[in-house]
Amino acid sequence: MKISIVVTQEEHFKFAQEICDTIESSALLRGTGIAKRTPEYIQKKMSNGDAMIALADGKFAGFCYIESWQHGKFVAHSGLIVHPDYRSLGLAKKIKSKVFDYSLQRYPDAKIFGITTGLAVMKINSDLGYKPVPFSELTTDPSFWAGCKTCTNFPILQSKENKMCLCTGMLYDPKEKQKTPPRHPFNEAVLSRLKKIKQALFLNKLLSFVFLLKI
């Protein structure tokens, strides 16, 4: 089986619906929040050359696209997904690495960032040199945060005025001198504990709010 990872073109439009369905079903399976995408939006990214697709003998195997914010000051990688038939092959890391390198060429002065609840994505980002940061270091563009509206955790984000959520913010600044291995090595146990603490804090506040409503 030969898997190739290429910059998208209009010939890949036919995979847009399958990509959206795979992203959504994967999120539901993990029980995580998700910002939903439409086939039309995915096709727009494809036609602009702001996406990469993995193909296995002509079949959709994986995908990721690029978004730019504040006139190219920030860049984010979104919609990273691998088809269930091609998981456990290290394909997600290969796609992410390709998109990362492509972003550095296409947007050389941009800070690359992401928000995620997935430990696997956090590890990939950390291996590439990202560091965990507060949301205040990410883009302030309202349209980025508006993209979270379809996520089940959006009320939490709103209640914190876009300063905190269950997601962890991660940032790569090309102007910082990078080291090998990364300056901020991934510690799955620490990040997993942080995620649980966040969930517990938000749950306690929600229960308190419900209790007050009943009084």
Give a short summary of the structure.
The protein has helices at 16-30, 39-47, 91-106, 119-128, 142-146, 154-159, 188-214, and strands spanning 3-7, 51-56, 59-69, 74-82, 111-116, 131-133, 168-172. The protein has 215 residues and is α+β, with helices and mostly antiparallel strands. A seven-stranded mixed beta sheet has the order 1-2-3-4-5-7-6, sandwiched between helices.
Describe it.
- The protein is α+β, with helices and mostly antiparallel strands and 215 residues long.
- The chain folds into two domains: 3-176, Gcn5-related N-acetyltransferase (GNAT) (Aminopeptidase); 184-214.
- Helix content is 41%, strand content 21%.
- It has seven helices and seven strands; from the N terminus they run E-H-H-E-E-E-H-E-H-E-H-H-E-H.
- The protein has helices spanning 16-30, 39-47, 91-106, 119-128, 142-146, 154-159, 188-214; strands at residues 3-7, 51-56, 59-69, 74-82, 111-116, 131-133, 168-172.
- It has a seven-stranded mixed sheet, sandwiched between helices.
- Helix 3 links the parallel strand 4 and strand 5.
- Helix 1 packs across helix 2 and helix 3 crosses helix 4.
- Mean pLDDT is 85; it is low at 209-213.
Q: What strand order characterises the main sheet?
A: 1-2-3-4-5-7-6
State which percent range the strand residues make up.
15-25%
Q: Which of globular, elongated, flat, extended, rod-shaped describes the shape?
A: globular
Low-confidence segments? 209-213
Using only C-alpha atoms, the radius of gyration works out to 18 Å
Spatial separation of the terminal alpha carbons: 63 Å
Residues in helices, as a percent range = 40-55%
Total separate domains: 2
Overall pLDDT metric: 85
- Fourth-level CATH superfamily of the largest domain: Gcn5-related N-acetyltransferase (GNAT)
Report the top-level CATH class of the largest domain.
Answer: Alpha Beta
Main β-sheet: number of strands, strand sense, barrel status?
7 strands, mixed
Question: Architecture of the largest domain, according to CATH?
Answer: 3-Layer(aba) Sandwich
Following the backbone from N to C, one meets helices and strands in this order, namely EHHEEEHEHEHHEH
Structural class comes to alpha+beta
Give a count of the beta strands, DSSP E runs of length 2 or more: 7
CATH fold title of the largest domain: Aminopeptidase
Count of individual helical segments: 7
Protein name: GNAT family N-acetyltransferase
Domain N-acetyltransferase: 11-151
InterPro entries: Acyl_CoA_acyltransferase, GNAT_dom
GO molecular function: acyltransferase activity, transferring groups other than amino-acyl groups
